[in-house]
Write a sequence for this structure.
């Protein structure tokens, strides 16, 4: 995989005007959706070569090997592309089961409550 | 739900510079990821009021009640927002089990094959 070269496969992806594509990370087994992030061409190439998720951080404008600081890396088991090529789905093994920078398993811990018309925080209680 | 009004909850979402947010649709039960689409404020409001997924189509620049032509509507069972508010997750019941305009269950039917360095079409055989 480390010898993978740029090729037509890379242009099968519909990169947006910023050269990015949204990427959904789903956990293998549980099928939980862990997070959504972005990749540019270099990030996708790095992900395929490394076998671990490498994203492009729009806020810091650089490649981001997920878990490089936290240790919460994502081993990529499968990669899928949608019908019009403009979204990528990664099936990953999430190291330590923690994908979110808040320490949560998944970033999607705010749940809509129609009765109160609010987003309810469903994250686990934090240690004080 | 049809009386739901615009409120602070709507600005808990981090709308991008086009006033849009990416939305992942995941099937309740199977937990399959069906598709990714976009919403603007009106689409989210319409989704909450109707109880079915209403997206914003960027190509046609209009609200799109998913399934309005195909009949493949998505009944919304749960809505989640991620940690930084910039992605929405819908848990839906997919009418007829078909989310993709190609007739596939899920839009993510192209699978990366590292041996051949190609995206392999994993859709079901089409009738000729």
């Amino acid at each position: 995989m480390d010898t993978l070269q740029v090729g037509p496969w890379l242009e099968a992806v519909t990169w947006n005007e910023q050269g990015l594509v949204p990427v959904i990370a789903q956990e293998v087994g549980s099928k939980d959706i862990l997070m959504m992030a972005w990749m540019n061409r270099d990030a996708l190439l790095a992900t395929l070569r490394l076998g671990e998720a490498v994203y492009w951080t729009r806020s810091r404008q650089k490649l981001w090997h997920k878990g490089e600081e936290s240790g919460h890396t994502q081993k990529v088991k499968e990669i899928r592309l949608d019908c019009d090529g403009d979204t990528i789905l990664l099936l990953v093994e999430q190291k330590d089961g923690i994908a979110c920078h808040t320490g949560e398993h998944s970033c999607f811990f705010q749940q809509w409550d129609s009765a109160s018309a609010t987003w309810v925080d469903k994250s686990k209680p934090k240690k004080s």
About this structure: Chain B has one domain: 8-98. Chain B touches chain A through 41 residues (CB under 8 Å). The beta strands of chain B are 21-27, 33-39, 54-57, 62-65, 74-81, 88-94, 110-113, 118-121.
